[in-house]
């Protein structure tokens, strides 16, 4: 009798990590799912230890972060891990979603829908966490982004005041953001488990986009070794950033304590939100900008319904491959424009790239 197959708990682990039937043609692009799982746990664990020393009060929050960096043993490392880990998490997630778009993983509807939900919740969690240090950019980003909800007819202003806990961003806002930022990662973890359940129910896609039921192999050791190798390389890259350039993704304005009377020259979110931020500010109408901002991510939910090609993978359509890489370049350009000052020619370029972003989805539909 085999323990790993007969014991109920061990058999679940065995069927998920050892004997899991996997397509024999998977490439290193299928590593990013496991990498995301590792970095999610890094974020949860580092955030848990940081919360021991964080104070959710507008008068103490900024100083508590400085205290972590200067006085807590290895507190600087935890803070750097958590801050840069968010950037690494989104970098991996965008690559993971791009791979899904390129190879037709959106055909597995439940897996794709749960993945997009994880993206949305991760964005919300990252925004809430960005506010917590209560620096200049944290305060003004919270003010600007929450004010967008006032564009919702009838209930917008009431919703904004409920989120603020008053008539301006203040102590109740910070307390609520801290509470939600602490809880949401565990909600994400639950949906990740559901995501894996749906993935194991349907099986993985593959580069050719063909049915691979007749040509599968066990996950271990063929793909577990690949995952460990990919994790080693990416974690080395992550450590180099944390130890050599730990503040490369942080805005200098956020090293200044928040001041409601001093507005930063240029208010901008973290780099992983810049593409959506460009779309938001490219539309003159406030309600139109908010709708475009939301749809820039929500449109991913509709991919399984309007991407119904005969073959699953874009790999088999030369023009689709060309459009996909144009889409990727356009995303990078939107990210670059989002970090630029709102003036000509950047405002004009942002409007054109924003239009192209949505137009590309319609091209994917008709090609």
Automatic annotation (TrEMBL):
Compartmental location: Mitochondrion inner membrane
Cofactor: heme; heme b
Segments crossing the lipid bilayer: 29-54, 74-95, 116-133, 139-165, 177-198, 228-249, 286-303, 315-338, 344-366
Assigned GO CC terms: mitochondrial inner membrane; respiratory chain complex III
Binding site for heme b b566: 96, 195
InterPro entries, alphabetized: Cyt_b/b6_C (IPR005798), Cyt_b/b6_C_sf (IPR036150), Cyt_b/b6_N (IPR005797), Cytb/b6-like_sf (IPR027387), Cytochrome_b (IPR030689), Cytochrome_b_C_euk/bac (IPR048260), Cytochrome_b_N_euk/bac (IPR048259), Di-haem_cyt_TM (IPR016174)
Co-factor binding details: Binds 2 heme groups non-covalently.
Keyword flag Repeat: no
Domain Cytochrome b/b6 C-terminal region profile positions: 209-367
Domain (Cytochrome b/b6 N-terminal region profile): residue spans on this chain: 1-208
GO molecular function: metal ion binding; oxidoreductase activity; quinol-cytochrome-c reductase activity
Cleaved signal peptide residues: none
Keywords linked to the UniProt accession: Electron transport, Heme, Iron, Membrane, Metal-binding, Mitochondrion, Mitochondrion inner membrane, Respiratory chain, Transmembrane, Transmembrane helix, Transport, Ubiquinone
Any single Pfam family the record assigns to this protein: Cytochrom_B_C
Gene Ontology process terms (BP): mitochondrial electron transport, ubiquinol to cytochrome c
Topology in the lipid bilayer: Multi-pass membrane protein
Sequence positions that bind a ubiquinone: 200
Binding site for heme b b562: 82, 181
Assembly mode: The main subunits of complex b-c1 are: cytochrome b, cytochrome c1 and the Rieske protein.
Alphabetical list of PANTHER family matching this protein: CYTOCHROME B
Similarity comment: Belongs to the cytochrome b family.
Purpose of the protein: Component of the ubiquinol-cytochrome c reductase complex (complex III or cytochrome b-c1 complex) that is part of the mitochondrial respiratory chain. The b-c1 complex mediates electron transfer from ubiquinol to cytochrome c. Contributes to the generation of a proton gradient across the mitochondrial membrane that is then used for ATP synthesis.
UniProt-recorded name of the protein: Cytochrome b
């Amino acid at each position: 009798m085999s323990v790993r197959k007969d014991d109920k708990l061990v058999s679940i682990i065995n069927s998920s990590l050892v004997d899991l039937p996997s397509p024999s043609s998977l490439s290193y692009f299928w590593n990013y799912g496991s990498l995301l799982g590792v970095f999610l746990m890094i974020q949860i664990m580092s955030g848990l230890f940081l919360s021991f020393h964080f104070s959710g009060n507008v008068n103490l929050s900024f100083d508590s972060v400085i205290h972590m960096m200067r006085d807590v043993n290895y507190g600087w490392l935890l803070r750097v891990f958590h801050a840069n880990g968010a950037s690494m998490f989104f970098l991996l997630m965008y690559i993971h979603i791009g791979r899904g778009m390129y190879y037709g993983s959106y055909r597995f509807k439940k897996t794709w829908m749960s993945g997009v939900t994880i993206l949305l919740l991760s964005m919300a969690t990252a925004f809430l966490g960005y506010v917590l240090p209560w620096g200049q950019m944290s305060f003004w980003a919270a003010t600007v982004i929450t004010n967008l909800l006032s564009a919702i007819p009838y209930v917008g202003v009431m919703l904004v005041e409920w989120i603020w806990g008053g008539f301006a961003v203040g102590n109740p806002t910070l307390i609520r953001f801290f509470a939600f930022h602490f809880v949401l990662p565990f909600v994400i973890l639950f949906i990740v488990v559901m995501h894996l359940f749906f993935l194991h129910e349907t099986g993985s896609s593959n580069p050719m986009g063909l049915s691979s039921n007749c040509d599968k192999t066990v996950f271990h050791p063929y793909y577990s070794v690949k995952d460990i190798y990919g994790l080693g390389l990416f974690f080395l890259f992550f450590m180099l950033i944390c130890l050599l350039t730990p503040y490369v993704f942080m805005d200098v304005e956020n090293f200044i304590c928040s001041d409601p009377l001093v507005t930063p020259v240029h208010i901008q979110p973290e780099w992983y939100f810049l593409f959506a931020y460009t779309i938001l500010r490219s539309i003159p109408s406030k309600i139109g900008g908010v709708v475009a901002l939301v749809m820039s991510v929500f449109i991913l939910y509709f991919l399984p319904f309007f991407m119904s090609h005969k073959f699953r993978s874009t790999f088999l359509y030369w023009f689709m491959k060309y459009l996909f890489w144009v889409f990727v370049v356009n995303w990078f350009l939107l990210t670059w424009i989002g970090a630029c000052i709102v003036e000509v020619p950047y405002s004009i370029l942002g409007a054109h790239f924003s239009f192209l972003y949505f137009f590309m989805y319609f091209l994917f539909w008709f090609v």
